[in-house]
């Protein structure tokens, strides 16, 4: 690692120690995010299994349509693409799961009278902005956009609800390396996608 190498990664003055500090900070953030996401996923899975609440079909269809639009965007199909061409069966199980989890979390938030302050919302926005080249611009963009602020507030409330549920659960700490933490989070995501695929296959058989 030399000064020229570090400049290619945004460290303009070529300071190797600064480069190493930034790499360490990024790795720490990624590891924390991976662990937090995996814990959240496990908590929500347990919550859903313990509370198989009925879900209105209208909400499932609404979420299904949202997933279709998201898929169309990811595959670059264009804004004019008619998402009704995509079969509901590809998204219905995931949509139902999301709606169930959303309803359950809303009840946890309501019953525990959870709320997110402006300071907490800004702190989360600043945390998100750290991964961008111009973090202050990102913060200002979020703070001046009510829709984005509402999304961040929802994320903060969701995290508080998960923490509340986690406090009531039996937790076992497992020591992992950086690579193991990322791999565990990735395996959790793949397992979830696999379960959805199996459910869709069963529906196709029926």
From TrEMBL:
One of its GO terms (biological process) is protein transport. Residues 182-191 have a biased composition (Low complexity). Keywords: Isomerase, Rotamase. The keyword Zinc does not apply. Residues 182-206 are annotated as: Disordered. Residues 16-166 form the Trigger factor C-terminal domain. GO terms for molecular function: peptidyl-prolyl cis-trans isomerase activity. This is Trigger factor.
């Amino acid at each position: 690692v030399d000064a020229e190498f570090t400049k290619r990664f945004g460290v303009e003055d070529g300071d190797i120690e600064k480069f190493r500090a930034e790499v360490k900070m990024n790795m720490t953030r990624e590891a924390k995010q991976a662990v937090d996401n995996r814990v959240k996923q496990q908590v929500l899975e347990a919550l859903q299994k313990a509370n198989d609440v009925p879900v209105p079909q209208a909400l499932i269809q609404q979420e299904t349509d949202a997933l279709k639009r998201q898929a169309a965007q990811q595959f670059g199909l264009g804004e004019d693409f008619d998402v009704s061409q995509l079969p509901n069966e590809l998204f219905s199980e995931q949509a139902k799961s999301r709606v169930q989890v959303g309803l359950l979390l809303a009840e946890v938030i309501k019953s525990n009278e959870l709320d997110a302050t402006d300071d907490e919302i800004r702190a989360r926005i600043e945390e998100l902005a750290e991964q961008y080249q111009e973090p202050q611009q990102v913060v200002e963009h979020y703070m001046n956009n009510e829709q984005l602020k509402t999304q961040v507030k929802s994320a903060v409330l969701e995290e508080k609800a998960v923490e509340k549920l986690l406090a009531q659960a039996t937790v076992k700490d497992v020591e992992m390396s950086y690579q193991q933490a990322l791999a565990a989070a990735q395996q959790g995501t793949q397992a979830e996608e696999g379960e959805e695929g199996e459910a869709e296959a069963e529906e196709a058989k029926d």
